[in-house]
């Protein structure tokens, strides 16, 4: 007793404990957690009853604080304390609650804070597991405290209910009955209309979780809570007097899940819809919350009822927000999260995404999707829903329709377009469709015509495209001859052309489609005198005559029973260009000229075809008709039209077998900057000579044809500033290119990487100054001379060349001719260089690189005639040679040079495979590559990337072994820079890894591998005794790695070897030893004459290791 009375810690609270409590008030969670951990650790270590009592009292009292951040730290600490100290009972806690948590004044906020503290104490008892250890009387007391605290404030009712549900979540049914349900059951024996949201939510959750314990029939007199007799009362509870704080109440999600899986889904929702007569933000948010949950959880048995969920009242209010509903919060200057409009728009867009996601289910039938579309687009929705909401839900649903669904929706949109149906405004009120709604119907029809499911249904396409053609071309309705406005006609014409946007896989179907459309014009439209008079006023006489010529030509071709591919090509082009005779003036002009050229080309083709059929020897020459045809196709591609682009691609595939080197050369010449006919070299002159107005008109016409007329001017004007900013950002790159070009030309014949200002003559210096000044002057003029028109013209040229590249890609799809492929290398490279000099050709540059990759991957050829090894050698030299290119340009082309070099080697294998070469006679290609490899190690001006040699050494090419001895010689040479030696070892490692991958080819070159390894061992032994040969540690590591890889290759490929790998590793280690032994001699010069020998030592280091630093040009 004496010890306890003299033991002060038992009577006083430990000072450090008070400090730890201060951490619980921190704003950061990390500090709070540290404080809680320190408090528990202190109490467990000291076992001071006074400390425990003080801590418990303070924690309980602090739970009634009016600052939420304070309560979280104290609550977490109390839960942990109750878990660690088993001697604390519920009775002690309840006594502390009575003493420490009571409202001294009559303040409403104080009453709320204290009551919340009571709820938190109960929550701590639940979370800590103390509730399960308590007596029945204590359990009852806790639940009573929780109930009383929840009754103090309406918002506390929700908190108390959720606290209890959190505890119930981890209980089994038996414990739930014993601890919870027997104590709270009396509260729920009352009519449904006396429930509030929290009590209803509690009953919904526990009845779902414990259906055997919670018998709804005894409580409410009906088998389920959501019963048809109770729907009205439940909706009153959910939707009456909803405040913003209750919008996110969990009852809405719970009831949405249960409704989605129950039989009363539609009845319940229609009752909710009856509350949505006028705008109420909170009520609408609640409705969206419920409906969103229903769509996410809808049961498969309720799928057919989904369209009924898009109810009239709900969707009318839904669309009002997107149409710019004015609310009080839009006027007040409030935070963004308090803006009614922004809040509703975000929630409604999320809902549309949920609907689209729900309709992706495989169990959703096409008829359900059709009914949903009717609801969204016709009634109660709007046909312009996609534009109103900015959502892609309509396209998403249409994409999943089957053929019957596509046809049903097409009929619906046809009625809108022809005005044979009415728009329902409200009950018993209808109106005619507005023009903008008809235009949207035409657009949707074009999407349906291009749908994947009707790709081969030509009759369906013909039927609806004829309707669009009547509106777009002739400004008349297909049935009632109702006049159409020019604006509406232009928009529908765009929709008509969009029907051709899908890829044409069935050529016969395309011919039938185009033939039917043109015959429809000739037979059913042009024969009507009033329509023909209107067309003669609208279009020129030449235009009508051109149409007649076209029809006569097509009739002549159509008479052939069996049509060749070329016949189909002419039909497709003639019919399609005929449809463009009714397009924009610019397109009409090109269509007219192309039709006349096609007429001449077809006549020539028939003559040449006849002669060839009769065996006329004069037809051994190239058929000129294909060259004319290519010119026509290029002319058509100059029109900025996605439709014509698709058509040209289609017919070009049919012409593939008739293509000749000359015809492909015509296509390539459009891309080659050095070609005289190439607009890339003449664009500046032609731009100056062309009329500004005509250029603007042509651009506008091409934009209109592609359906971008409305926004093109705005986009261009807005984008011009952005383009200017981009140009300014890329200015240093362009300037550096210009300067590098000058410096590269100045040092073309010099063996140095840089210009030494001390060594150039005065005359050379003056020339260099003039060249640099000219580069700066031209660059400055080019920058200031840019205009909006220049950018437009360059964009048009770039787009045209991209369309031309499509033809090259198509040609490369099959097995092309080798001479044509090799002939593409130089012009494609020149075009790429040209694009790299101007950032406005970035898109074309990327497209070119893609085509170059496709070309380099071609493995099979229809013919290798007219190609010899000497020709391939010339192309390889041209690719590798730096020429007049600047350093910067050459390095930027590194990947292209590599791709073409491997392609040329592959071509040589195809040629040499058919020729029996003499033994031990190296191919000229190998000699060139050997020289290049030697230059790579010894010549500082060699700019080829190391990947160039890696790619060649890892090819399946037997002559690659001829390059390896050069690598071995140079990696052990004193004349080679240190970093080049390292790269050489990396090349050998890559070579052997390639052998490991190509095990089948490895056996064929086994003798060469043995010869290479003998050379390697000999070279390694030679440098062992060479004290002047200095290496670095990294070099030693790489060589060891190489030896280990050689060993693994021999083991994996089962190739015999003469190498003693252990001995080789020892030799390499001795190289390292020599380095370590001689290192001090280098690092510590005799007599400290460091300054005197500085220059000499620097030159020695450069010769044996690192690259020299470039000497800067001094400015005068």
Automatic annotation (TrEMBL):
Pfam families named among the record's database cross-references: DNA_pol_phi
Please identify the protein, giving its name as recorded.
Answer: DNA polymerase V
Location in the cell: Nucleus
**Basic residues bias (residue ranges):** 1088-1099
Signal sequence range: none
The record, for InterPro entries, names: DNA_pol_V/MYBBP1A
Q: Where is it found, in Gene Ontology cellular component terms?
A: nucleolus
Which terms does the record give in the GO molecular function aspect? RNA binding; sequence-specific DNA binding; transcription corepressor activity
Basic and acidic residues biased stretches: 702-713
Q: Give the principal location in a single coarse category.
A: nucleus
Q: Which domain of life is it from?
A: Eukaryota
Q: What residue spans carry the Acidic residues bias annotation?
A: 684-699, 714-726
Q: Disordered: where is this region?
A: 670-731, 1080-1116
Keywords attached to this Swiss-Prot or TrEMBL record, sorted alphabetically, are: Nucleus
Q: Which organism is the protein's source?
A: Leptidea sinapis
